Amino acid sequence: TLQEQLDTARMLIQSREAEQTSCRDARDADSNALRAEVSGVIGELRDLLTLADPRWELFGLNIPANPTVPEAIASLTVAALGTGQESAEWSYAVRMEGTRLFLKKVGIDEDFINIADPKDLDYLMKNLTPGTTISVFVRAHNAAGDGPASPTITKVVGA
User: Per-residue confidence at 60, pLDDT binned at 50, 70, 90?
Assistant: First the structure.
């Protein structure tokens, strides 16, 4: 009976992993399609607007001739996603071209460390020690530089 339960549990895990892979692949395909559409719109704007036209900012874009740093990322959440893993998710910031994720292990690190520059609006932090207190913030960046820091989240790493 225990062997049957173990086999059933393994099959369920494999099924869920396959579902996650399928969902991730669909998300990535949708993200790539959206990026292609946005790139097309930006290409059309280049044909219609001068590089110094202030209307670039009406589309949430930098004025190419005079870029401005992005606005601050307004919200950040950090949640346990398994032993020693924390998932960080944040909102989009106007004029953001990318992000920088900063982590500080309280009582261990003297200062925040840039641990990743993710393209997406989320990141999975792995190999954290359960029970450790961490502080996390994110900054949007573009060609003009880094924007202000998001709110800082401090929490204990889940077990």
Answer: confident
